[in-house]
Amino acid sequence: MSRVSPASSAAVPFPRVDGLRPNSLADLVDHAAAGRLGPDPAEVRVSVAFVTRQGVRHASRESGYRNHVVSFRVERAVGSCAVEPDEVPDDVVYDCVGAPVLDLLAHPVNAVRVAALDAYLMAAHPHERVADAAVTVPGGSSLEKSMARAAAVTDLVPARPGQTVLVVGVVNSLLSHLRTRGLRYLPCDLKDGVTEWGEPFVADCMAVVDDCDVLLASGMTVGNGTFEPLLRHARRTGKPFVLFAQTGSAVLPWFLGSGVTAVSAEPYPFFWLDGGPSVLYRYGGNAS
């Protein structure tokens, strides 16, 4: 079982800059580039840039998946953006070493912009200082850690038995916990496939979004362009919108109270990298 504790006795609620409510990701980038969210981004540089490549198939599971993640280190923080396998050439990533964050916020590759923004915001506003709660995922097998992490994420989903959750970015462990709670779900993913229970993925989440009561989406939506359509839907309808974020873990909390209900933020190193304990941070919702 995961252990939940306050992230800090002096946690600072969002927004962390008085009156700042970004309308979009571009709006948040503009605020960061203008130095409104932290130190002058022209003076802050990326010291390390790398790509993590991973393939996984948990014991007893019928299918697996692959992850490629672009990451930048800014001071103590590591910001990340997941990409499709081989979508971003290594040279593009390595060329960012030593670059000012300001330059990377205007980079032509979206994953570079997101990872740079994530690292910059995390360095200026560390999760351990501002999150509502820290959750320790205990060590274990890849499946045990996946299920424990999924429990912490789905605990943020404000849904009653019989309601339908739009799940964008299929993770079978999340679906397992939703099923245990008596919830229906619409599994959406850009990749072709089926869930562990044989349910086909829906490629276009916006085609079925009207059929749900609650939205639960991966931070990967920031990298692939589906976050903002989902955000607009949540704002228009008032439906709860919960995110589980390895990509953009320090980006998405800025939208709390402005369309986003809760965020499970999981900065690098991610739970799947080793068998020891790992930490994620919860914002909003039933965070504590």
Automatic annotation (TrEMBL):
Gene3D superfamilies: 3.40.50.11590. Residues 154-264 form the Putative heavy-metal chelation domain. InterPro entries: DUF364. This is Putative heavy-metal chelation. It comes from Streptoalloteichus hindustanus. The lineage of its organism: Bacteria, Bacillati, Actinomycetota, Actinomycetes, Pseudonocardiales.
